[in-house]
Amino acid sequence: NAIEGIEWIRLLYCYPDKITDELIAEMRDNPRILKYIDLPIQHISDNMLKAMNRHGDSAMIKEVISKLRREIPDIMIRTTFIVGFPGETYEEFLDTLSLVKKVRYGSMFTFIYSPRKGTPAAEMEDPITKKEKTKWFLELLKVQEEIAAENGNE
Predict the structure, then answer these.
(1) How far is CA 123 from the centre of its chain?
(2) Closest by alpha carbon to 145, among 96, 100, 84, 94?
(3) Is 49 exposed, middle or buried (0-12, 13-18, 19+ CB in 10 A)?
């Protein structure tokens, strides 16, 4: 913020567990910081968050989103989700779908899980078929597309 010549600042790839009340206040009060944040959540199921080695839990993520919306009502929240992570159940996928419907993200990127060599997840048993992962992925995309259309962000 102290650097001259920078007109605006956009916060990208902000882990939810690192979002403090002080950061939220700075975003709210500093005119150089855009009312935009990228929170790469990946999932909302506590089991999946743990399996993905993500910090925090679903309650913390939901509280951060609530604080952001309460303190900065016009904030645009962008996120990312992974569908079909090894061991994910359809019920856990539905938890993510429910969150998307409730939060109504301004922008969302979603990916079908694919193993990356050398990662712990690549060694996990993956009982979910590619067909099933694709079905879930398309279901999530449809919901976000409907939200975007309602928000005029087609």
Answers:
(1) 24
(2) 100
(3) buried
- The predicted model scores a pTM of 0.90
Instruction: Identify the DSSP state of 122.
Output: G
Tens digit of each residue's pLDDT (9 = 90 or more) over 99-142: 999 999 999 999 999 888 888 888 888 888 999 999 999 999 99
CA angle 78, 95, 20 (to 5 degrees): 45
Single-letter amino acid, residue 117: K
The token duo for 47 is 């089991």
* Six-digit token string for 62: 């939901």
Sign of the torsion formed by the C-alpha atoms of 70, 83, 148 and 33? positive
Name the phi and psi angles at 29, rounded to 5: -100, -20
- What H or E segment, with its residue span, contains residue 38? strand 33-42
28: its two tokens = 């709210």
Q: By the 8 A CB rule, do 30 and 71 touch?
A: no
Task: Count CB atoms within 10 A of the CB of residue 138.
Answer: 13
**Confidence category of residue 79, pLDDT binned at 50, 70, 90:** very high
Whether the CB-CB separation of 16 and 36 falls below 8 Å is answered with no
**Distance from C-alpha of 150 to C-alpha of 6, rounded to nearest angstrom:** 33
